[in-house]
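User: Hello! I'm new to structural biology and keep hearing that structure can be predicted from sequence alone. Could you demonstrate with Glucose-methanol-choline oxidoreductase N-terminal domain-containing protein? Please show me the input and the output so I can see what each looks like.

Assistant: Of course. The first part below is the input, the amino acid sequence of Glucose-methanol-choline oxidoreductase N-terminal domain-containing protein. The second part is the output, the predicted structure written as tokens.
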Amino acid sequence: MQWTLILTISLSVISLTTSQTNNIFDFWTDLFRPLPHAKKEGFVPDYTPKNNQKFDFIIVGAGSAGCVLANRLSEISDWNVLLLEAGGNENFFSDIPIFAPFISITPMNWDYSSEPEKRACKDLRGNVCYMPRGKVLGGSSVLNFLIYQRGHPEDYDDWEDMGNEGWSYKDVLPYFKKSENIRIPELYNSSFHGKGGYLDIDYASYSSPLETAFKDAGQELGYTWNDPNGENLIGFSKPQATIRNGRRCSSSKAFLEPIRYRKNLKVSKYSTAKKLLIDPLSKIAYGVEFTKKSKRLRVYARNEIILAAGTVGSAQLLMLSGIGPADHLNEIGIEPIINLPVGYNLQDHVTFSGNAFIVNETGLCVSDMIAASPMSAAAYLAGHGPLTIPGGAAGLAFSHTKYSNDLSDSRPDIEIVMGAGSLAGDFLGIIRSLLGVTDEFYLKVYGSLPIQKRQQSFALNPVLIRPRSIGRLTLRSSNFDEHPKIQPNYFDNSNDMKIIIEGAQKIINTKSFQKYDTKLHDVPFPGCEDLVGTCKMGPADDPTAVVSPRLQVHGAKGLRIADASIMPRIPASHTHAPVVMIAEKAADMIKEDWDKPIFKIS
């Protein structure tokens, strides 16, 4: 049945006309609803709480962190745990690694976008950047590009230096390893990796022909081919990814599905939290108000409520519930309960995805037409082929530029992600729609390239992994259904732009790439993956902090946050791995505070 389904899609996609590709996203979304896969036993049963029902713990958000928390807290058999998730199940299509961009333009995404930016998001629709966030079991681990990368050890030592005791690298490494099931043979005996955890980490089974050139180019430039989660981050590598047998291993698959029949864990899907119930006098958080099937329900927590709704969702819920900057809440018409700097400290990794490098041979690059072919579909069903490439990323490189004199030489400030294809080869418009690139922009930049040349193109996308620019998230109104205002302030610090410009060209100039006569398609651009920090962690005497080093909301009782929003400074990493670590550590903190056995650090 799955083979028939993929073959039908592949043939249908290839036969689409240019005008039809504008609607390809609706076409694919409709085709995959409902899916046979959704009826399989692996899916987590849905539970609808009774109005006013009580639980020991309520977790809001079944994303990268929420699934981990639900698993670990329900290990205590006498605790009743409720997990609320606004979305539903993953499906067969969301499992396909290379089609990660497509999932972001389906109902599995909250569809957030930034406010118009002065220095970034140029030539995107409305001058805004799209900010995909998962609205599905597994959250953003279903939408992301699957790359598993933790950052530099000093990133976490910095957290501790900022007053967050217990968050140094030596403290958090055991929690990274706890969740991990490394499936890369040469790393089985590494002291930096774990075996037997819930989350599978592996390479894509497919190796792009460009991978060898990328590796050789790094060696020409003096870099080692290394483990980006090992002792040294600087260097070149093949991406480690959350992959299981060629398919996406989301947090839901890893942490929820194996325990879906635990009697003390209930998962309520399509349940959108609208407000936290907080006593204005005692400051005790005692319940959550949410909607499901057009009904408004309330549930109550005997012990704690844990927010795992992400950088946008957790900050929004806090402010709607009266926890946030008092002046802003008053302006919106919300009675402040606790005055805290919620929504500040917004940080994001910035990337540029528009470059296209042309080679003189066929068979080196992967365009979307190749990915959608029946041959690729058949290989995928066997766990192989180009569809297993994580988000299309075939190589990673981390380096230190001259603009980061405040960092040690071992700490990178720029990442280069080599894509097996490029935006020029996005014939079906999937990546264009994800980024918000207009058709006019695409045609002006790439229209002069023959179709064959577009298929013979790949990308080297620079990612600013240590941004200095800081943004803010604010409410638009007191209505949860109105998305908040997200203002990243990209390139507010001038060094951020200088860093992101440096990097790709020196790789292309190596002999390893010049043997393919690799050239940048240099038509000028007209007009020119990782939000964190809105509920910053810090000690009580830090006026910029929202939660304590034990992740408890300052001034409140019975309320914690465990997701990317607590990061005081964004690490030089793809944020999925750190978020899983935060949830693992948070679960032990909760157990410790309630006098239950915790993970023994080895």
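User: So the tokens describe the shape?

Assistant: Right, they're a compact way of writing down the 3D structure. Reading them back into a model, for example: The longest strand covers residues 295-307.
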